[in-house]
Automatic annotation (TrEMBL):
Protein family (similarity comment): Belongs to the peptidase S8 family.
The organism of origin for this protein: Fagus sylvatica (Beechnut)
Principal location listed in the UniProt entry: secreted
Residue stretches making up the Subtilisin-like protease fibronectin type-III domain: 633-733
Residue ranges constituting the Peptidase S8/S53 domain according to the UniProt record: 136-561
Pfam families xrefs: fn3_6, Inhibitor_I9, Peptidase_S8
Alphabetically ordered keywords of this record: Glycoprotein, Hydrolase, Protease, Secreted, Serine protease, Signal
Record's protein name: Subtilisin-like protease fibronectin type-III domain-containing protein
Length: 737
């Protein structure tokens, strides 16, 4: 066989290519990315910048590449002191011998940080509401928030059917945002800013593009095809589906970085109106405006209009943490509180004497610290609690610092002090594991219970040169007890405007949802579940959707006790958790629902003493009829008896309700009372409800009698249980504030 010269040349080039490719493969495997933490006090004064020092370290290595290969990726001087580089094992060893070296952070794409809340909610690919709802297919969720990153993997439209013909929305052109960025997943994108004097060009985009990331995360959780976790160095960590990955999304940007307020009420209202006009099925608002009378409350006004059009409206109950601080509490809004997951982020610490401790840490990188001196300001209270300007750099720099608990200073202030004096790492004694947000972990730190601190302080006081043998950051622990809990920041009832309507309505995951980002993301979880329910039951009203969520919620944690408060560690009440924690699979088949329509809300408002003008503002009518029902006869899936210091005991109240059968055609429900406290007597008439067809209504009356005054809040539960194991649960609450 003859081979031409040209063929020989081609073959030679192919061999050279393959040789180079193989070498490149082996070289790529040899190099690995590391983040190197340095003691910046070792920087010679001859270097004007940290970056020039970092480059010098890499160039001066004996094993530095001969071809001047760029090793440095990033030089850090604010989030940490050090740099990241692609290094061989021998190069890494050489750097670690430097006296300036403190720790190595091996780059990882942390499986420990995948989004976990859909799994925690019981959503499964081949079971329950996900397959039954086709993942929320074609339900349209409108998000009123800070915008969206359309390029995110969460909003890919692969495999999705054409946009529903009923959709009237559009995608607007704007700064760094083209209408072509929308697709069959992200079907609408608009922004509203006329209520603002100025939009920051530096810290925002004059378009629907998201600068903060809040709106993008909200949309991803509600209906993302994938939800990305992101570390604070910008590396994607893992993916999972949102709650309703088959649903469509429309973003209405009303939150901005401005010189005044972040969101103008005029813009919020405009965004809500446009969402109604565009044809959304679900409206999600993780926004907070101070609770006022309903006729002056933009969220109440806009949402009532949406409800009239059959749109399910879900809002955050607020992040104010105390009693009487719940917002978005109008009875037509589904008001959401925030809960924890059964997942925690931990770090371990072992002293040189072998004693080991486990605590909470949200430090955003994997770090392993060994053989470090441990400092504690024994004999000096100011130094012991790491008070501002108390620590001496000469005593502390490069060491692990122990900061004692004190009511005089917050952990967020202590970490600034230890960072100021060049501490290597820190240990903070506190029983509040949520004392630092993830973004505040500027140096490797862990939070230990105060009880653990006693042993550490004894060791530090006893030893001449106390040392930390090892500290390891950070790993994930699932199955944490007690879970879920009411998040420390979650606003509590009673409803400041109408305390006879129990708020919040329900709990959903809102802590550590996206990686170690500590923020409330409970609202989009409920929006996503609402989309799933609308896909299964398109005929249901917004009230029916909420009722299904509330009556199937659970109020017992994974230890079999009433849901606890993360803030106090004590058992909560329905003022904390409403009807309980959302349970999507159960909500799909609630058995009975407490339904309501627009006229029910008019009846409710008639009893608030509003003027004709105030009523017209709310209901957008000049004429309406009222039958003057009692406020507590609103057909709500909970019961609240409101008392005051002037109430004379004994006292009795009656609550009329109507339930609709949405389960099997023939069903018999029996009333069960649970957890009824001493001093509260409950009767239900009739005690048995018999249904002979689907959508049949039956009425009943709950009577609450209270013998004597009680502290703040007492509660129990009414549960209607049928032969098919439907359990229709409602909290019964007596409030004395």
């Amino acid at each position: 066989m003859k081979i031409s010269f040209s063929h020989l040349i081609s073959l030679l080039w192919l061999l050279l290519f393959l040789f180079g490719f193989v070498n490149a493969v082996f070289a790529s495997k040899e190099y690995q990315t590391y983040i190197i933490h340095l003691d910046h006090t070792h920087k010679p004064v001859s270097f004007l910048t940290h970056e020039s020092w970092h480059r010098s370290i890499l160039k001066s290595m004996l094993s530095s590449p001969a071809d001047n290969k760029e090793l440095l990726l990033y030089s850090y001087n604010h989030v940490m002191h050090g740099f990241s580089a692609r290094l061989t094992p021998s190069q890494l060893t050489e750097i670690e011998k430097s006296p300036a070296h403190l720790a190595t952070y091996p780059e990882s794409f942390g499986k420990l940080l995948t989004t976990y809340s859909p799994k925690f909610l019981g959503l499964q690919q081949n079971f329950g509401i996900w397959p039954a709802a086709s993942y929320g297919e074609d339900v349209i969720i409108g998000i009123i928030d800070s915008g969206i990153w359309p390029e995110s993997e969460s909003f890919k439209d692969e495999g999705m059917s054409p946009v529903p013909q009923r959709w009237k929305g559009t995608c607007e052109n704007g700064t760094a945002f083209s209408p072509s960025a929308c697709n069959r997943k992200l079907i609408g994108a608009r922004s509203f800013s006329k209520g603002l004097d100025h939009i920051s060009k530096k810290n925002d985009f004059n378009s629907t593009r998201d600068f903060f990331g809040h709106g993008t995360h909200t949309a991803s959780i509600a209906a993302g095809n994938h939800v990305h976790d992101v570390s604070y160095f910008g590396y994607a960590r893992g993916t999972a589906k949102g709650v309703a990955p088959g649903a469509r999304l429309a973003m209405y940007k009303v939150v901005w970085d401005t010189t005044t307020e972040m969101a103008a009420t005029t813009d919020i209202l405009a965004g809500m109106e446009q969402a109604i006009l565009d044809g959304v099925d679900i409206m999600s608002l993780s926004l907070g405006i101070n609770q006022t009378s309903y006729f002056t409350d933009v969220m109440a006004i806009g949402s009532l209009s949406a409800i009239e059009k059959g749109i399910f409206v879900v809002c955050s109950g607020g992040n104010f943490g105390d009693y009487k601080t719940v917002i978005n509490a109008a009875p037509w809004i589904t008001t959401v509180g925030a809960s924890t997951l059964d997942r925690s982020f931990l770090a371990t610490m072992t002293l040189e004497n072998g004693d080991s401790f486990e605590g909470t840490s949200y430090f955003p990188e994997s770090v392993f610290i060994t053989d470090s001196l441990l400092y504690y300001g024994k004999g000096n209270t100011s130094k012991a609690i790491c008070i501002h300007r108390a620590l001496d750099r000469k005593e502390v720099a490069g060491k692990v610092v122990l900061c004692d608990y004190s009511t005089k200073i917050k952990v967020s202030q202590q970490i600034k002090e230890v960072e100021r004096v060049g501490a290597y790492a820190a240990i903070f004694l506190t029983d509040m594991s949520f004392s630092l947000y993830a973004i505040q972990y500027s140096i490797p730190s862990l939070l230990l219970p105060i009880a653990s601190g006693k042993l550490i302080k004894e060791y530090v006081t006893r030893e001449r040169n106390p040392k930390v043998k090892s500290m390891k950051f950070v790993f994930t622990k699932l199955g944490t007890k007690h879970a879920p809990q009411v998040a420390n920041f979650s606003s509590k009832g009673p409803n400041p405007i109408s305390p006879g309507v129990l708020k919040p309505d329900i709990l959903a995951p809102g802590v550590d949802v996206l990686s170690r980002i500590c923020t409330s993301m409970s609202t989009p979880h409920v929006a996503g579940v609402g989309a799933l329910l609308k896909a299964v039951h398109p005929e249901w009203s917004p009230a029916a959707v909420r009722s299904a969520m509330m009556t199937t919620a659970y109020a017992i944690d994974n230890t079999g006790t009433i849901l606890k408060s993360q803030l106090t560690g004590l058992s909560g009440t329905p003022l904390d958790f409403g009807a309980g924690h959302i349970n999507p699979n159960k909500a799909m088949d609630p058995g009975l629902i407490y339904d309501m329509g627009f006229q029910d809300y008019i009846e409710f408002l008639c009893n608030l003493g509003y003027t004709k003008k105030q009523m017209s503002v709310l209901i957008r009518r000049t004429q309406w009829s009222c039958s003057h029902k009692y406020i507590h006869d609103l057909n709500y899936p909970s019961f609240s008896a409101v008392l005051t210091n002037e109430t004379r005991y004994p006292v009795a109240m009656n609550f009329s309700r109507v339930v609709t059968n949405v389960g099997n055609e023939k069903a018999v429900y029996r009333a069960h009372l649970e957890n009824i406290p001493t001093g509260m007597r409950i009767s239900v008439k009739p005690k048995i409800l018999t249904f002979t067809r689907k959508y049949q209504n039956q009425s009943f009356v709950v009577s609450i009698e209270l013998d004597r005054e009680f502290p703040r809040v007492i509660f129990g539960f009414l549960k209607w249980i049928d032969q098919d194991s439907h359990i229709v649960s409602s909290p019964i609450v007596a409030i004395n504030f």
